Predict the structure.
Amino acid sequence: MYCHHYFIDYPHWWTTAWLSTMGEIITYADQTTSDCIIFDKNLYGDHIYILVPFYTKLDPKKDQKLGVDVAVEQLDMGRSKVTDLMDKKHLNQQCTYIVSAQQLENLKAQGYAPQPLEIFKDINGEQIYYLIELSRKIGSSILIEQLEPIS
């Protein structure tokens, strides 16, 4: 009974807990030509910083020099960074972003037009992660707020 529940039922109930596609996502993103890769902190919290050097095969000496420190939210790993996209008013449109399906909708609501480069599915075939580029929607309220008043 325990084995059936743990190995058969549970993976279908909560596939993200198994980090089922993170290696594929990180490897794919690392092969892009983007100058920066931004991981939404809400994917796996701060813990994604452990997986990025592993899957990108970052030299441990370089990794140590980066000064990554989860305690003070210093999660800049050179080309790859972990940040909470919900805390950012303006996102760099030159970067590639890795986001969840929920965050994709949040970005649309903020006036961005996400362009999926790749969609990653879990073991159940559900689309759960997106590798995207961003652009602003023309006429979005965020762009209007950025305009300087005419005097």
Observations:
- Confidence is low (pLDDT under 50) at residues 141-151.
- The first helix runs from residue 2 to 13.
- The chain is about 35% helix and 20% strand.
- The CA atoms of residues 120 and 126 lie 8 Å apart.
